[in-house]
Amino acid sequence: MKKALGYLVALLLLVVWEIAGRASDTGLFPPVSDAVTELASLLGTGSLRTDVLPSAGRALAGFALGTTLGALLGITIGWFHHLEPWVRPSLEFLRAIPPPAVLPVAVLALGATSGMRITVIAAAAMWPVLIAGVDATRAVEPGYVDVARISGLSPLTTLRRVILPAVLPALLAAARIALGLALIMMVISEMIGATAGLGYLILQAQRTYAIAQMYAGIIVLGLLGWLATALFALLERRVLGWYQDQKGIADG
Amino acid sequence: MAEIPLIRATALTKSFTSRGRTTRAIADITFAQAEGEFLGVVGPSGCGKTTLLRCLAGLDHPDTGTIEFDGHPITGIPPALSVVFQEYNRSLFPWLTTLENVRFPLRRPSSLGRRARAATREQAREALSRVGLADFADHHPWQLSGGMQQRVALARAIVSRPRLLLMDEPFASVDAQTRATLEQLTITLTVELGLTVLLITHDIDEAIFMSDRVLVLAARPTHILRELPIDLPRPRDDVETRALPLFQNHRRDIHHLLSPTPDS
Ligand SMILES: Nc1ncnc2c1ncn2[C@@H]1O[C@H](COP(=O)(O)OP(=O)(O)OP(=O)(O)O)[C@@H](O)[C@H]1O
Ligand SMILES: [Mg+2]
Hints:
The structure holds two protein chains of two kinds. Chain A is globular. Chain A is mainly α. Helix content of chain A is 81%, strand content 0%. The longest helix of chain A is centred in the last third of the chain and has 35 residues, at 155-189. Chain A has helices spanning 2-23, 32-44, 47-79, 84-96, 102-110, 114-138, 142-150, 155-189, 198-207, 211-239, 241-247. Chain A contains eleven helices and no strands. Chain B is α/β, with parallel strands linked by helices. Chain B has a domain at 92-160. Chain B contains eight helices and ten strands. Chain B has helices at 49-57, 98-103, 114-130, 146-158, 176-193, 204-210, 240-243, 245-258, and strands at residues 7-18, 21-33, 38-42, 64-69, 72-73, 81-84, 164-168, 196-201, 213-217, 222-229. A ten-stranded mixed sheet of chain B has the order 5-4-1-2-10-9-3-8-7-6, with helices on both faces. The chains are: A mainly alpha, B alpha/beta. Chains A and B meet through helix 7, helix 8 and helix 11 of A and strand 6 of B.
């Protein structure tokens, strides 16, 4: 019932957009129907294959790379915690740099390539997971490690069978934040030296006053973010079902 | 046969230093435990019981002194040893079902075939049914009561058929009724599996009721005040045994030993 109401509100907002768009005569704020028509024609001309999918692919690759690296580094630093005083100041400094600031450096170093864009997405997605990994690993119940030792597990097996499942809830919560950052960096990275991609599409549409097309791109972005979040929730449910049940976290 | 004790501790000492302050936990502990013997260790709260257990298990190193397992000085954790820890909620893995928790200590090299893996599952199932939790194999620990969780911890401790079972105040955080049931269950398992158990507790009655011999520890820094053989007949009964004059005598003795040094 509440869910249906939520959709009704969304629909209402769309209607408001439509009316406001029709009332406006500056041409800078087209009605939603124009944006949707533009969206359909965009997809019809193969933009799905040339812009949307490559963008999504880069976001996914960067996200996967960054979160994996962040998890590995975070767990390692947390596990060998006498390492932490050595690396903490550098980490604090590096994580404080807003990710978009890395972009000019990356362009210089790697050129305006797909690899460069994946790298900056990964660099942004890495930090939340890395920091959460350090903290969660240090906070693992010492009793768990005692059980592993008494059971004769090697340190590597202990990492895999005890530490990893113990820190997974924290890692996934951080990965959710990283997902948002990855999408942001996907768009921003395509606004420099790009000839295709969603970010390029939106920027190009704005520059050429193809305002409806600009909004079409933004709608696609919204849909992409929504889809990514939904898929992520599905993944969380699969690997963290025990955690959600224990904490009484209901999905939906 | 009983010449070599299963475990022998000689002149153990242990202190902790944190932030420049040194706490002496163990002043001097020497004792031996024969195979098949049920040894109780009582001592006031905070006297160093857990510290002693961690040293015996090889989880911590004593500052001085030696520990021999089966006649050999220990280097690390003896493989034929298992532990029931003081706090079950910090020792059972919430992401595993009770069956997987119990199966956890069983070796599972990836080279093992499907049949060997199924065998470890059977072993875990058997241990679970010994503690009366066969029907809860697929539950997670947090879906069970405290007493049931401690049963799972017990099943996990016996699944590998250890030669020595160390228990650290295993029943301290359950109600009296559950406690009596768990004490009886532990005695039953000890007899059925021929276990050697070292039970740490601060409950004098529990120590007397379960043990063949009781070590009475002093307050921190701890040492052994007295070794007390408990010649109560077995099998022991929750009501009858506790009513025996000999039981009352033991209890009075231990109370007297411990009362001049109240909890710090
Ligand atoms: N890792 C540690 N670092 C510093 N001090 C410690 C550490 N472990 C134990 N101690 C100290 O050693 C003393 C004995 O602690 P221990 O846990 O062995 O007592 P206990 O007899 O098991 O107590 P309880 O009955 O409460 O379980 C305490 O004063 C405690 O503060
Ligand atoms: Mg203790």
